[in-house]
């Protein structure tokens, strides 16, 4: 266990599972002076000005008992208050980056923490920051219908929205058009920004757009999508979980696209 001078919150992960402490039927991030289990080099994380916190990878998965449980980060949305789920997501992104950026990509020498969000190479004097992968996600309207798809990598039978990662040299709008054409064969118009959401699985940001159908017949990209169609509000398939920006976008559309957009 790592020794600390004062109590703090401990965001401890084994792969993508988060350690939670049981407390009379509820669950919370451990708060104590020392890490409750052995860690691989914990580090300070700044989650907001009022919290003292550290994060680290656990050397092994902790078996559930009367005091402790490990929950997948995505599933922790159902166990933690929203603010703590967000904090755990940021901590996980930093833990993932720390675990995968031990050495300088320029010269191969070990990196050391420089600030709470950067590392430094003493050999070639370069500073490095966490890599965040931007991905767009788009809700496509066709009159009173919406395009919903089932991706082959979805965990479950729900239908969501067309999404994909930004490529080098693209604008966000170009990415939206390209992904829609590649995955569905459709052309779209009237692309407008909706909002964004950190997506710490393991380290991304989802950038949401609305668009209108322009032309084309659905031709699914077989290696990406297993199903896709336009649906009316009265005939919807299973929808994504409420933790995702996809669900927020669908719910906003279902509500008639009110002026105020839901915040995450």
Automatic annotation (TrEMBL):
The keyword NAD is annotated on this UniProt entry: yes
Pfam families assigned: NUDIX, NUDIX-like
InterPro entries: NAD-cap_RNA_hydrolase_NudC, NADH_PPase-like_N, NudC-like_C, NUDIX_hydrolase-like_dom_sf, NUDIX_hydrolase_CS, NUDIX_hydrolase_dom
Entry keyword set: Hydrolase, Magnesium, Metal-binding, NAD
Transmembrane segments: none
EC numbers, comma separated: 3.6.1.22
GO MF assignments: hydrolase activity
Similarity comment: Belongs to the Nudix hydrolase family. NudC subfamily.
Record's protein name: NAD(+) diphosphatase
Cofactor: Mg(2+); Zn(2+)
Gene source species: Parabacteroides faecalis
Domain Nudix hydrolase: 130-255
Catalytic activity: a 5'-end NAD(+)-phospho-ribonucleoside in mRNA + H2O = a 5'-end phospho-adenosine-phospho-ribonucleoside in mRNA + beta-nicotinamide D-ribonucleotide + 2 H(+)
């Amino acid at each position: 266990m790592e020794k600390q001078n004062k109590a703090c919150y401990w965001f401890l992960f084994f792969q993508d599972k988060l350690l939670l402490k049981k407390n009379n039927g509820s669950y919370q991030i451990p708060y104590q002076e020392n890490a409750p289990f052995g860690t691989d080099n914990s580090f300070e994380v700044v989650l907001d000005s009022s919290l003292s916190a550290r994060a680290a990878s656990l050397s092994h998965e902790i078996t559930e008992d009367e005091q402790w449980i490990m929950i997948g980060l995505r599933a922790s949305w159902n166990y933690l208050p929203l603010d703590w789920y967000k904090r755990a997501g940021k901590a996980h992104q930093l833990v993932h980056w720390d675990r995968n950026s031990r050495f300088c990509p320029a010269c191969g020498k070990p990196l050391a923490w420089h600030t709470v969000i950067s590392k430094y190479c003493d050999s070639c004097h370069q500073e490095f920051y966490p890599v965040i992968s931007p991905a767009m996600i788009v809700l496509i309207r066709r009159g009173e219908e919406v395009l919903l798809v089932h991706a082959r990598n979805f965990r479950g039978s729900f239908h969501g929205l067309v999404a994909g990662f930004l490529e080098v040299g693209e604008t966000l709008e170009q990415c939206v058009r390209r992904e829609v054409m590649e995955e569905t064969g459709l052309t779209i118009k009237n692309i407008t920004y909706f909002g964004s959401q950190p997506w710490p699985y393991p380290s991304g940001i989802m950038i949401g757009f609305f668009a209108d159908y322009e032309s084309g017949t659905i031709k699914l990209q077989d290696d990406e999508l297993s199903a896709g169609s336009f649906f009316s509000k009265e005939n919807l398939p299973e929808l994504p979980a409420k933790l995702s920006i996809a669900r927020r976008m669908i719910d906003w559309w279902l509500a008639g696209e009110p002026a105020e957009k839901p915040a995450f």
